């Protein structure tokens, strides 16, 4: 079974600063996907960014980027030029690849509560 | 474009009561999922479905049942509510195995007293 660990229960930074959220995972799989989801106070789960394990290049989506270290099983999220609207819970999640199709869902970490201070 | 719609948004149940959480999606996704989120925890998979007529257990299926008679609908049934089922429930859907991410509903907050 896979496990996902987010070691920072809460972080707080000033608006416009850069912040990095940590995530480590444990798996024996070689082909998998990693995700960061954002959950603002509205409770809606929003996909922020995804990474395919077989791709060495780190994914980037506007102000959001990841540092994917496959050997270290680390998948951190960097938010540049942080904004008040980035205040939310952030969840790291793992999904293994099924070569024959099918799926068995996402495994989530416990989350990091990110607070952007004005 | 509604996406994934969950009803109700809030519900209070008494111990031993039953209820069905409704979930419908209009994106023609073949995969659908039910998760629960307890305070301070990530989401845990209850049940999932890879298509109409096919369902399978996730990590925490005890106390729940599901059915998938159509592509659009994936209701979650609680037969004998217990306080341990107090949680926020999320329905999600994806095209294929969800390798490009899921679309989540807005959640149902359920309290069992």
Give a verbal description of the structure.
The complex is a heterodimer of chains A (118) and B (113). Helices cover 0% and strands 51% of the residues of chain A. Chain A contains no helices and 12 strands. Chain A has strands at residues 3-5, 10-14, 19-21, 24-26, 32-39, 46-52, 60-61, 64-69, 74-79, 88-96, 107-108, 112-117. In chain A, the strands form 3 sheets. In chain A, strands 2, 5, 6, 10, 11 and 12 form a 6-stranded mixed sheet that branches. In chain A, strands 3-9-8-7 form a 4-stranded antiparallel sheet, with no helix packed on it. In chain A, strands 1-4 form a two-stranded antiparallel sheet. In chain A, a hairpin with a 6-residue loop joins β5 and β6 (46-52). The radius of gyration of chain A is 14 Å and the shape is globular. Chain A starts with a strand and ends with a strand. The mean pLDDT of chain A is 93. Chain B has 113 residues and is mainly β. Chain B has one domain: Immunoglobulin-like (Sandwich), CATH 2.60.40. Chain B has no helices and 11 strands. Chain B has strands at residues 4-7, 10-13, 19-25, 31-37, 43-51, 54-57, 64-66, 76-78, 87-94, 103-104, 108-112. In chain B, the strands form 2 sheets. In chain B, strands 2, 4, 5, 6, 9, 10 and 11 form a 7-stranded mixed sheet that branches. Chain B starts with a strand and ends with a strand. Chains A and B meet through β6 and β10 of A and β4, β5 and β9 of B.
């Amino acid at each position: 079974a896979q496990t996902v660990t987010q070691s920072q229960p809460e972080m707080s930074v000033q608006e416009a600063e850069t912040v990095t959220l940590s995530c480590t995972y444990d798996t024996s799989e070689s082909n998998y996907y990693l995700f960061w989801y954002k959950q603002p106070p509205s409770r809606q789960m929003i996909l922020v960014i995804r990474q395919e394990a077989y791709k060495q290049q780190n994914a980037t989506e506007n102000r959001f980027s990841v540092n994917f270290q496959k050997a270290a099983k680390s998948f951190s999220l960097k938010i540049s030029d942080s904004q008040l609207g980035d205040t939310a819970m952030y969840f790291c999640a793992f999904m293994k690849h099924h070569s024959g199709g099918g799926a068995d869902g996402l495994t989530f970490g416990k989350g990091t509560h990110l607070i952007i201070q004005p | 474009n509604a996406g994934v719609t969950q009803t109700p948004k809030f519900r209070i149940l008494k111990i031993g009561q039953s209820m069905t959480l409704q979930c419908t999606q209009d994106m023609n996704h073949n995969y659908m999922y039910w998760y629960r989120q307890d305070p301070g925890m990530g989401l845990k998979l209850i049940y999932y479905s890879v298509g109409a007529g096919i369902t399978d257990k996730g990590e925490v299926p005890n106390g729940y049942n599901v059915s998938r008679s159509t592509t659009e609908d994936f209701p979650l049934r609680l037969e004998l509510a217990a306080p341990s089922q107090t949680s926020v429930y999320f329905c999600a859907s994806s095209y294929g195995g969800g390798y490009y991410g899921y679309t989540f509903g807005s959640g149902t907050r359920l309290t069992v007293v």
